[in-house]
Design goal:
The chain is of the alpha+beta class and 267 residues long. The protein has six helices and nine strands. This is Protein kinase domain-containing protein.
Length: 267
């Protein structure tokens, strides 16, 4: 094992009028963490400390997102967190150890990373729709930041895409797929500003979310592979022009005023 384990489970509510549903249980078991210390092989890894740290950060992040109304959209629904006790036997003596668990919404979809590096456009999704999805992701990150939290690892491997069901009618076969929802997962290195060290507490709140142009102007989107147009590869200016088209003009009124002068990169 290399870290938290994800298990899909079926939850049966105590309310007999509610239907069972699937959820994702993220289990922070120290015995599933790697004991290998790559930087100092002669020193053991404190896997219990690492597991508890991952759990406490992730649980705090989901609790904050739920409190600020961010779950169920760009973030998964959050159902709660628990600590349970498991037996362990060591040198003939039975002991107890604690294992942590976070229960969140199960996203029945595909990981964006798996669609970024295919030789052909992913699932026939049009370039226009891919850019719409990318814009929604950047907007979601800006609104999450405005809520008082930074996930700190916005990357295709941490984005799940829920697709519309495949066409069943023959006349719809070959029609491009549509992404119904993009969901950001994995919060074990995130920062909740009001719970953070002093350097993060200095984060300045604004009445509206920061404009994604402010957040992503000099950030390369090359990691998104075929999800972005070929002309963007190693071409920051093309990416910046798209940011201006998408989040500038009338669309800018949904965000706080841009705090700096944005200059296009050289061609």
């Amino acid at each position: 094992g290399r870290g938290p384990q994800l298990v899909v489970c079926t939850i049966t509510p105590q309310d007999r009028h509610s239907k069972p549903f699937q959820a994702a249980a993220k289990i922070f078991d120290p015995l599933y963490y790697s004991f290998e210390n790559k930087n100092a092989p002669h020193r053991p890894v404190a896997t219990t400390l690492k597991a508890d740290s991952d759990y406490s950060i992730e649980a705090a992040a989901y609790a904050h997102l739920q409190k600020t109304g961010q779950t169920g959209a760009f973030a998964p629904e959050y159902y709660g967190s628990w600590t349970f006790t498991l037996p362990i036997r060591h040198r003939g003596t039975q002991h107890e150890r604690q294992v942590r668990l976070v229960l969140v919404e199960y996203i029945d979809g595909v990981c964006m990373r798996d669609l970024c590096y295919q030789e052909s456009p992913p699932l026939g999704i049009t370039e226009e729709h891919r850019l719409d999805v990318l814009a929604n992701i950047l907007d979601g990150a800006a609104r999450m930041d405005h809520s008082g939290m930074n996930q700190r690892d916005l990357a295709p491997r941490n984005i799940m895409l829920k697709l519309e069901p495949e066409a069943e009618d023959s006349w719809e076969e070959g029609r491009p797929r549509v992404v119904q929802r993009a969901v950001l997962i994995d919060y074990n290195i995130s920062v909740v500003y009001h719970l953070s060290p002093e350097e993060w507490k200095c984060h300045e709140a604004t009445k509206l979310p920061v404009n994604p142009m402010d957040l992503f102007w000099n950030v390369s989107f090359d990691d998104f592979g075929h999800w972005v147009p070929e002309g963007w590869q190693c071409n920051g200016k093309a990416q910046q022009k798209w940011l201006m088209e998408r989040f500038g003009g009338p669309n800018a009124f949904a965000y706080a005023p841009v705090s700096r002068e944005l200059k296009l990169d050289d061609p």
